[in-house]
Predict the 3D structure of the following.
Amino acid sequence: MKNIEFSSKNGVFDMNSFICECDAAVSGEPLPEPPETEQPAAAAQPVVLPPAPVPVADGTDPIVYHPLEEVLCDLRMGKLILMTDDPHRENEADLVCAGQFATPQNINFMATHARGLICVPMAPEKVDGLGLPMQAHHNTEKLHTAFTVSVDAREGTTTGISAFERSVTTMKLADPKATLDDFVQPGHCFPLRAVEGGVIRRAGHTEGTVDMLRIAGLEPVGVCCEIMKEDGTMARLGELGAFQRKFGLKACSLAQIIEHRQHTEKLIVKEEVVKLPTDYGDFMCHSYHSKVDGQTHLALVHGELNTEQPVLCRVHSECLTGDVFGSRRCDCGSQLHTAMRRIAQEGGILLYLRQEGRGIGLSAKLHAYKLQEQGMDTVDANIRLGFAPDLRDYGVGAQILRDLGVQKLRLLTNNPKKIVGLAGHGLEVVEQMPISIPAHADNKHYLDTKRDRMGHLI
Ligand SMILES: [Zn+2]
């Protein structure tokens, strides 16, 4: 338990644990450069949209990415491909191939040229179907890499370690007819259990491999191996161009797979529509269940939507302390209620996304608060806790808005990255209108950080 002084509009409370960290951006993007000059607070100028986000590979010789369809084609032909994760995460590329094509040649290539740990990412239903137990009951690894017990095929192996024998074991793992009796434990192949929901829930190579194989129409059991340089350190994304060219490898990023799934799958389900009279006006409350995070998100609609015209809209991320208690550590509560008042006057949508504390959750937000009390700013506090500056992702929000028929938006926001996130999902933001909230002593530092380090137009 932590004691954090909690200053509220209604007085100062000493609360026994909580946090807040609000407005921001698209998963994994680098922070934008701070604006040159302070923007005028109430200017309702249309903004020029920045280009859609592309995979980032800092360095002198970066990987070249290919359209997903070309990469899928190579997987179906049994070839190896490169798959990169986010620069904020491992910042690594793995060699990947389908488990059903885990030939001795492919395994030998990985062992010779990639030289990392050769693992076997498997769909959760495949691991459960085989009844493979997890290696650690309580996973304490930093990225929660989900190793099962290691295995060798019972038939066709001696020591299990040669490329030929690892090929036998991996192909057996990919065999839909295999049972637990076909394996001995421990062994020399390392199955990994992908998270239910895949890259949408966890952007790791395990999930990326399984998702790509599913999209390719192959068995969702693959092989992956990290790439280690000759000096024994791990190769980073920006230095793998020569490796890629030498072996003629196609490459994709986890971001491409996420984007593909967001565009081809419906990740939200409308559950209920009810009347919601409020102090600000009458709304219709549409609730949506998200398969991405299992949360119920709300769209409060005021008036009849004319979707032929741009719709006034606020995309608001939950901030319990700001929205409910009127915390003055941030400006969320004021922004929410200013937006509700305006939408009730003009008609439009308040989209309320349940992603507390920039997606890090309430508990972690409170830990970040504590670090801020010890002198860190909001961005550094999140980094110290092991998170990218912002984990939120507006794919779900964009799907809800599209489900409501919205095509064009007039967006109430101070956050330019929110626009990039929505624009990448088939919504056109024709206007950005900042919400001007006067700063006060309790949140001045927080607002300065949002302006100077996260590019907010405050
Ligand atoms: Zn807040």
